[in-house]
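Outer membrane protein beta-barrel domain-containing protein: structure tokens wanted.
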Amino acid sequence: MKKIILFLFIISYFNSYCQKNNSNIFIELGGNAITYSVNYEKIIKQIKNHNLAIRIGGSYFKKKGQNNIIGIPIGVNLITNNNKNHHLDLGAGVSYSKGFIQSGTVNNNEWDSYEELFFIPSIGYRYDKLKKGINFRIAYTPLISIKILDDIDRVISENFKYSHFGIMVGYRF
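Answer:
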């Protein structure tokens, strides 16, 4: 997790010399990484009254003796831009997760793994001045499972979905 945060800060440091106020670092609870994630977002294009942004993040969740999950959410967002602070935020993304479940006893330390891939559309409200400063977002982010594979590439489950929400707090620079 420390490496992910360091990587995001390095990207943001070098990016700050290119364009002002087009980068955002944020923490999201729920949302695209299921539990939480640390993310970097970059506005890459302005189209009429909208901004097109890309994002990438990382998460790590550990529950002692049961489940360790590493997640990588990637997405694209369209943010309305009418020179106000309140925006409609539409997005689409994927989230890759790799999990480890302890299969043996605590003493023999055997672990099984599984992989998940989710498609995650989103619609939400974003408060963002699109200038340097704090911003936040709340969104409906349904999780649509594409495939879940176990450690020998057997399909465990595919094509399930459930409702999910996310809350994001970030800093634009």
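The radius of gyration is 18 Å. DSSP finds one helix and eleven strands in the chain.

Cheers.
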